[in-house]
Specification:
The protein has about 325 residues and is mainly beta. About 0% of the residues lie in helices and about 50% in strands. It is globular, with a radius of gyration of 20 Å. It has a 5-stranded mixed beta sheet, with no helix packed on it. Strands 2-3-4-5 form a 4-stranded antiparallel beta sheet, with no helix packed on it. The protein starts with 7 loop residues before the first strand and ends with a strand.
Length: about 325
Amino acid sequence: MAMRQTPLTCSGHTRPVVDLAFSGITPYTNVTLVSSLLLLSDGKPMLRQGDTGDWIGTFLGHKGAVWGATLNTDATKAATAAADFTAKVWDAVSGDEVLTLAHKHIVKTVNFTQDSNCLLTGGNDKLLRIYDLSCPEAAPQEIAGHSSAIKKALWCNDDKQILSAAEDKTIRLWDRSSMEEVKMLTFDTSVSSMEYMADGEILAITYGKTIAFYNALSLDLIKTVEAPAPINSASLHPEKDFFVAGGDDFKLYKFDYTTKEELESYKGHFGPVHCVRFSPDGELYASGSEDGTLRLWQTAVGKTYGLWKCVLPEDLGAENSEQLYTSPTEIKA
């Protein structure tokens, strides 16, 4: 029989969830998830257990809305970008603030190098900055070129290059050593999200109703898929067989990556979906919404994983014979 998708709902957030990021699979917590919240007067990014959504802790220190968040690969460090004109680096194990990096305007995006020694930032001052975290008192390297606020910036090609997306309707590829622009992509509307696949092959981009996939190194277009509604975020499964997307109509969509066929769509949120990401093991994907919730969805519905449990008919009593699959529906901070 067909199983119904039952997400885990993580509440405790008082404002829209605008960004989220997974670490790699670690020996400490399996997979760790950090979600960044857009708050009007206070910024409190939360750290959650990636396979269950259980609240681990809250990073306290920002004095403005938090726009971006990231974890390093082994989940020992976190970084956040905020409207208080700072980026902060945190000890993700103890929750302590390690560094505050002052900027001249709102910071929208942060990203660690693979060795966690450098932090890339970008924001409303239109500049990319590279901070050497072993020498934080030194002035950062700066890259100029965008004509509007930078929304997302990512390291790529073994940290030899940088990808940045901005309100000027462009995505630009930069060479780290020369600090020069290598290539630029131009769109009809501003890019709403950009995800770089960890294997170094594919870049997923969303703009308007379009989900586009590019070669991550050459920036050559691979394919585009049109969704029924404006899309704010998309994520490709690690095995590249399908991808999920969410946007303004409160829905999550699942598409076959090869055929581009819509496989399913469903509502769970009560507001636009701002961000969606697969876990590194591909067993679930997380979505953050305007409704202030983070929801975890199973990739293979009915599989025992995390807090989801598949119960076989022979294991049930007669009074519960119709209940084949159970999951708790809400995890509070």
